[in-house]
Amino acid sequence: MVEIEVVYAAVDRQALLAVTMPVGTSLRAAVLASGIAAQFPELVLADCPVGIFGKVVADADVRVVQPGDRIEIYRPLLADPKEVRRLRAAKAAMARRKNS
Fold it and tell me: Looking at the Swiss-Prot or TrEMBL record, what is one Pfam family this protein matches (predicted)?
């Protein structure tokens, strides 16, 4: 058996579950078996990107859990971070020109 954590942070709340999985369990199977879906029924766990300690795992159906893994379930991005930074920089430039 392997002890791991499964983590998800919604906009308004978060959950961290400590679970024990059989050796050889894939990340996706561990997430599905963790019971986190009961706390966040809006999640489609079969499609959510997952990672370990902040690094996205490309194939969660193949990667096997290791002792101490912290499996993180990621939310989809609402906006492209590059676009948000570009808009923020343009707004700041416009504000500087107004104040000059």
Answer: Ub-RnfH
> pTM of the entire structure?
0.69
Q: Distances from the Cα of 40 to the Cαs of 2, 45, 95, in angstroms? A: 24, 10, 41
How many domains does the chain fold into? 1
CA end-to-end span of the chain: 65
Domain containing 38 — which CATH number? 3.10.20.30
With a cut of 70, say whether residue 42 has pLDDT above it.
yes
Beta strands in 1-100 (DSSP E): 2-9, 14-21, 50-52, 55-56, 70-73
* Distance, CA of 100 to CA of 60 (rounded, Å): 53
